[in-house]
Amino acid sequence: MKNKFSIIILLAIITISLTGCSKYEKDESYDTDLYGTYTQSIGTENSNYFSQQKYIFNEDDTYDLYLKEIQNNEVKDNHSKGKILSNATIYENIIKISLDNDNILYKYKNILGTFYEVKIPSENKFDLVIPTPSDNWTGLYPNAANVFNKNGFYHSCLDITNCNDTEDNHVGLYYKYVCKNNIIYFIDPSVEGMNWQILYYIVEDGLFTPELYKVEE
Questions:
Q1: Are the CB atoms for 61 and 81 separated by under 8 Å?
Q2: Distance between CA 197 and CA 24 in Å, rounded?
Q3: Are 65 and 80 in contact (CB under 8 A)?
Q4: Which pTM was predicted?
Q5: What is the pLDDT of residues 158-201, one digit of tens each?
Q6: In which region does residue 72 sit, left (phi positive, over 0), alpha (psi from -120 to 50) or beta (all else)?
């Protein structure tokens, strides 16, 4: 999903989604087929900023992509159509989807997102660097990475070769994380009353970041 997802957008989604009444975000993943509608939204249409991405996968192996953005009362709408070139199970519960717009998407159960092939330590807290190179409208970050440490904290670097707290090289947000079953949850320790949110699913040979969820019609 190189044309859409970046570290900055992921953290924006995370920050906005910190709501709810339970201690841990409910895992709403379930097995389903590929075809159908998947959506992701940031903000609301009545707020200062709103964006929505929607993929519709059709049974004739075509797709529709809808992008909508509202900012300062300016509305941008885009709709494109194309073909699903291939979809194949590469690991248990992970399907790789290749589109004719050069995008690669990954599906885990009822969710589209990003898959990182990485060996996860068996400990509940660990030192781990996950390369997350980004090349999209936010900029080119070939050395971007997500960083976990044994103290139970997680942060993102725009340049892992020079990861510090400067505006250019570090997103500047630190979170606590915890592993629970096959899920890595995070929480913002600087905000009181927030809940643990799903950051990654631990899957065979890697991690999966949830981004677009299937809409049952």
A1: no
A2: 6
A3: yes
A4: 0.81
A5: 888 877 644 444 555 789 999 999 999 999 887 787 889 999 99
A6: left
Contact criterion met (CB below 8 Å) for 179 and 90: no
Q: Token pair of 7, please?
A: 């570290």
Reading the block at residue 96, the tokens are 């790789």
Task: Concatenate the DSSP letters of all residues of 144-176 into one string.
Answer: -EEEE-TTSEEEEES-GGG-SSSTTTEEEEEEE
Q: What's the Rg (C-alpha) of the chain?
A: 17
Q: Report the alpha-carbon distance of residue 125 to residue 154 in Å, rounded.
A: 10
Tokens linked to 57: 């996968």
Structure tokens at 213: 């969820």
Q: Is 50 exposed, middle or buried (0-12, 13-18, 19+ CB in 10 A)?
A: middle
User: Is residue 26 classed as helix, strand or coil in its secondary structure?
Assistant: coil
Count of CB atoms within 10 A of residue 137's CB?
8
The tokens describing 74, both together, are: 């300016």
**Total residues found in the chain within this entry:** 217
What are the backbone dihedrals phi and psi of residue 117, each rounded to the nearest 5 degrees, phi first?
-80, 110
- The owner of tokens 């609301």 is 44
The answer for residues whose C-beta is within 8 angstroms of residue 155's C-beta and 6 or more apart is 146, 147, 170, 171, 173, 174, 175
Phi, psi (deg, nearest 5) at residue 32: -160, 165
